[in-house]
């Protein structure tokens, strides 16, 4: 069976951390098995739809390196649909297909029209809640004669769940599961505005798009019993189900948009690299097999190809995964340090740095060509934990610090090093090191006294790379100017 999986976000908001994990696991599973990764936009919630989210979701997936094989921005591949007349990757463009399915269910007695008002439904929910009962529909309209239920009054269409027995299905993570039918609600399939609910649309779409495996969050596990009954009522073969473990905050509360599930745009604003984010979410509910344990234990720096190689849905966990943001920052630090000074990832670091630099009053972009900034970033990034720290460390490569007040021994050391460095023909770290050490030896000044003063003179004591590479980055003229300024300030 050909592997076809889908990531099906609702454009009622931007892509968030939980969505990134769902997308990544679908993408890796497709690539692992030579299958197709499909993007489907489930835009049937018209009251909360955010049109700008449609493109942003696609942009975020591209930023993360997840290439969509079929989706709203790819050429339409009608042959991959069972019903090519309604082929589309956006649900609002497929409404006739859902109505056809609902009509078929009505005709076969698997669905019924519900005329209950919003006020009545709310009163039912409140009453059940106060009594500690499930807040499900009481099936009042299910017993209406068909003639009475076809009088043109505004209504919804509900699924007629079996009321006896149980629904069983297998999940590739949670195993064999069973739900008592009497406890499953008669779910609305078509809303009064004519748009389908998630439950009908996703079943119809997954069948029509020949989806082989449904990978989605654990919160949909209880709804799967409804979906299995819908598949059977429509005469469809269900796909394989893979439910991903719940994401929770460190305080054990469920992760949500309101409680810390950051949008990708917010994560980008933090200076997080896409490779770091992919490596981070990979570990949320998944662990490596023994075969791949050594590779994953020794690195949080795996390429998308390496992630594909080690990914196995058999290694998904049932227990909830704690989202610890400090872990993301740690992984990002490793990626910042290890990225080679060329390629898309390094270009992104440069973009992050320039965006932040341009907000600084001391930075003049006109006087800082890209190659100069790239050289500075390449040399400095191994010494900092984040892009923000890196930018802070760049300040004193653009702004000469004030002359410090030096004690007698450090002053002698600075004076001696300045004299040696003026005569240095080769301004490279090793040559600078040799000149400085020789000068201190002749002046009989210890390194422990001289080097803190030297860092203070050069970069105002700012943390950064070792002193000799720092001086090489500053250049001969600027380094000597700062050394001479310190001596004049103490004269």
Architecture overview:
- With 491 residues, the chain is mostly helical.
- Among the domains are: 264-338, Glutamyl-trna Synthetase, Domain 2 (Glutamyl-tRNA Synthetase, domain 2), CATH 1.10.1160; 344-398; 408-489, Orthogonal Bundle (Arc Repressor Mutant, subunit A), CATH 1.10.10.
- Helices cover 45% and strands 9% of the residues.
- The protein contains 19 helices and 11 strands.
- It has helices at residues 17-32, 51-63, 95-107, 118-130, 198-208, 224-234, 264-269, 274-282, 290-297, 304-310, 325-338, 344-357, 370-380, 387-398, 408-422, 429-443, 447-459, 467-474, 476-489, and strands spanning 4-7, 36-39, 111-114, 156-159, 166-171, 175-180, 188-190, 213-217, 240-244, 247-248, 321-322.
- A 3-stranded antiparallel beta sheet has the order 3-4-7. The protein has a two-stranded parallel sheet with strand order 1-2. A two-stranded antiparallel ribbon has the order 5-6.
- Helix 1 (17-32) links the parallel strand 1 and strand 2.
- Helix 1 crosses helix 10 (304-310).
- The longest helix has 16 residues, at 17-32.
- The radius of gyration is 31 Å and the shape is elongated.
- Keywords: Aminoacyl-tRNA synthetase, ATP-binding, Ligase, Nucleotide-binding, Protein biosynthesis.
- Residues 360-486 form the Aminoacyl-tRNA synthetase class I anticodon-binding domain.
């Amino acid at each position: 069976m050909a592997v076809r999986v889908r990531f099906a976000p609702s454009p009622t908001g931007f892509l968030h951390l939980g969505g990134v994990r769902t997308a990544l696991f679908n993408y890796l599973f497709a690539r692992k098995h030579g299958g197709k990764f499909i993007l489907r936009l489930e835009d049937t919630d018209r009251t909360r739809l955010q049109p700008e989210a449609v493109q942003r979701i696609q942009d975020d997936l591209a930023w993360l390196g997840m290439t969509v094989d079929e989706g709203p921005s790819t050429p339409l591949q009608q042959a991959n649909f069972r019903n090519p007349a309604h082929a589309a990757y956006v649900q609002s463009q497929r409404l006739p297909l859902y109505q056809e399915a609902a009509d078929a269910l009505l005709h076969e007695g698997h669905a019924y029209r519900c005329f209950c008002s919003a006020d009545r439904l709310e009163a039912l929910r409140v009453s059940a809640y106060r009594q500690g009962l499930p807040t499900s529909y009481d099936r009042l309209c299910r017993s209406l004669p068909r003639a009475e239920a076809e009088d043109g009054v505004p209504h919804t269409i509900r699924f007629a769940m079996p009321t006896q027995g149980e629904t069983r299905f297998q999940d590739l993570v949670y195993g064999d599961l069973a739900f008592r039918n009497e406890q499953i609600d008669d779910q609305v399939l078509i809303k009064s505005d004519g748009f389908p609910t998630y439950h009908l649309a996703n079943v119809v779409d997954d069948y029509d798009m020949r989806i082989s495996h449904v990978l989605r969050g654990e919160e949909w596990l209880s709804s799967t019993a409804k979906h299995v009954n819908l598949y059977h009522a429509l005469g469809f073969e269900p796909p394989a189900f893979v439910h991903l473990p719940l994401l929770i905050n460190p305080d054990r509360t469920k992760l949500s948009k309101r409680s810390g599930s950051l949008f990708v745009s917010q994560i980008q604003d933090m200076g997080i690299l896409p490779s770091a984010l992919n490596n981070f979410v990979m570990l949320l509910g998944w662990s490596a097999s023994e075969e791949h344990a050594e590779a994953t234990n020794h690195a949080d720096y795996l390429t998308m190809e390496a992630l594909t190689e080690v990914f196995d849905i058999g290694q998904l966990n049932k227990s909830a995964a704690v989202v610890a943001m400090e872990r993301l920052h740690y992984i990002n630090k490793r990626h910042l340090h290890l990225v080679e000074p060329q390629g898309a990832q390094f270009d992104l670091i440069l973009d992050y740095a320039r965006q932040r630099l341009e907000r600084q009053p001391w930075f003049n972009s006109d006087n800082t060509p890209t190659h100069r900034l790239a050289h500075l970033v390449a040399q400095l990034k191994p010494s900092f934990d984040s892009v923000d720290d890196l930018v802070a460390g760049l300040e004193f490569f653009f702004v000469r610090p004030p002359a410090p007040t030096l004690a007698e021994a450090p002053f002698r050391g600075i004076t001696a090093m300045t004299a040696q460095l003026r005569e240095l023909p080769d301004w490279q770290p090793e040559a600078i090191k040799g000149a400085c050490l020789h000068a201190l030896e002749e002046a009989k000044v210890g390194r422990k006294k001289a080097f803190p003063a030297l860092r203070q003179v050069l970069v105002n004591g700012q943390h950064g790379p070792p002193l000799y590479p720092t001086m090489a980055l500053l250049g001969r003229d600027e380094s000597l100017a700062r050394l001479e300024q310190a001596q004049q300030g103490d004269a």
